[in-house]
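Support reply, case 0932

Customer input (verbatim):
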Amino acid sequence: MEVLRRSSVFAAEVMEVFDRSPTDKELVSQAKALCRDYINSRLIRAGVSWSKPEYNAPVPGGKLAEVSTILLRLGDELEYIRPNVYRNIARQLNISLHSETVVTDAFLAVAAQIFTAGITWGKVVSLYAVAAGLAVDCVRHAQPAMVHTIVDCLGEFVRKTLVTWLKRRGGWADITKCVVNSDPSLRSHWLVAAVCSFGHFLKAIFFVLLPER
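Our regenerated output:
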């Protein structure tokens, strides 16, 4: 399991990427940094006690911080539309949070189903909302170490499934186009794509429940 890094050197490396074409490794590192920030935000919002200092550190400033802010804003909209979808994830999937294998398999199954019909920013936001919802469940059930597992798992999924798509768009900064354009049709486009992912999320629940846990 990769150790979560918080050093200033790492922060500088992450920020440098936005000045050039990012590599696969850099995109994955950014994905995990964004996931940590998203999860921390949701833990705070849920009022869950969380004492891990590395999770209290925000993402580096500059462009990545802007991306994180927008990701959280889009996540707020998504979770407002379907609040029950992104809460009590473990109960919906009927999984035990005491097994790293079970948590990993369940998260990857959901992720795969969300993107089964293609990749959009709406679905990416949905993936982060699922990760955060599951992380909140883990901390509430006294399994805080599983949060690290979820972050690593999301990073691995990004590496295998989303990196090529992200590189074609110039990296994570492309998500800013979801909100900077005033055209309401563009704003509704990502929301429609995200709403469509709900069906894939429910389908994922069905497939996860098929094996006996």
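We compared this against your earlier run and they match. Two observations from our side: The chain is about 70% helix and 0% strand. The radius of gyration is 16 Å. Please reopen the case if you see a mismatch on your end.
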